[in-house]
Design goal:
275 residues, mainly beta, Jelly Rolls, 6-stranded antiparallel β-sheet, globular, disordered N terminus
Length: 275
């Protein structure tokens, strides 16, 4: 009887340990509704998932004008998801459309406002700058840090990668050498298709599902449905992949946050059209 009891305790202990250490894929579905009596809402999402990285989902209507704040201890990236707006800086006007990226760099006179009757949804990603980052950025091209970075996703340079099929369109929407240890891009294809399993222990990664994205993300033994307007964290060091069923679309932003600058060697797996 004692042997059976000990075996039961051992079994429960092992099951608890397996459950505790089972891989998970943290995900947050964005709230895309702004109540009639609201002009603005802001929510921090996937808080404390990546050291030094804060992600906010911000929604504003056309009654709100946002002035961009710049400081030396943090770098920010704005990913405009849906809605149309107008951005002004240095006497110039920029049209914000769905799927636009902006980083102020060292420019202080930036503000934007949704167009009449428009609601603007965007992610504001803030990256804390380490002492090494502050040294590293001094080596970047001056135009990369002293001018506003503003690009529509569709206008960004495309690349290919061995883990993706020929029918996949990938674009680099934020190259490295703008913000230390950060790069971003998009992946788009129609199913059936997949991004093959791969591992990168040198970086943390977020995925943002864009309009009409209906895919599935895998990390080791875990998997999660990945719908449009959702943000997830790929567990660092996991073997992960993405698949999409027939007639569905895979369309997302990847965001790489490298542990150190040496890790950026991973980006050499991206083959641009002019190489």
């Amino acid at each position: 009887m004692k042997t059976k009891l000990n075996f039961s305790i051992l079994a429960v202990t092992l099951f608890s340990a397996i459950t505790l250490y089972a891989q998970e894929i943290p995900i947050k579905i964005l709230d895309m509704e702004l109540k009639a009596n609201q002009q603005e809402q802001s929510k921090t999402i996937l808080n404390n998932e990546i050291d030094g990285v804060t992600t906010e989902h911000i929604t504003i209507n056309s009654d709100i004008t946002k002035k961009v704040e710049v400081d030396t201890l943090n770098k920010t990236i704005y990913l405009f998801i849906t809605g149309n707006a107008t951005l002004t800086s240095g006497g110039k006007t920029y049209d914000i459309v769905p799927e636009t990226i902006m980083s102020p760099n060292n420019v202080h006179d930036i503000e934007f406002k949704p167009n009449n009757n428009e609601t603007l949804h965007y992610l504001k990603i803030t990256v804390l700058q380490t002492a090494l980052d502050l040294e590293d950025i001094e080596t970047f091209p001056k135009e990369n840090i002293n001018t506003i970075y503003f690009k529509k996703f569709a206008d960004c340079e495309s690349y290919t990668e061995p883990i993706k099929s020929p029918q996949t369109t990938s674009r680099t929407i934020l190259p490295n050498k703008y913000i230390p240890r950060v790069a971003m891009g998009t992946v788009r294809t129609i199913g059936p298709d997949k991004v093959g399993a791969h591992v990168h222990g040198m970086l943390e990664q977020l995925f943002l599902g864009l309009t009409d994205n209906h895919s599935v993300v895998y990390a080791d033994e875990a998997q999660v449905d990945f719908p449009e307007y959702s943000l997830l964290h790929i567990p660092r060091g996991s073997s992960h992949s993405v698949s999409v069923n027939a007639n569905n679309e895979m369309y997302y932003v990847w965001m790489d946050f490298f542990v150190d600058k040496d890790g950026e060697e991973w980006l050499k797996t991206h083959n641009t059209n002019d190489e």
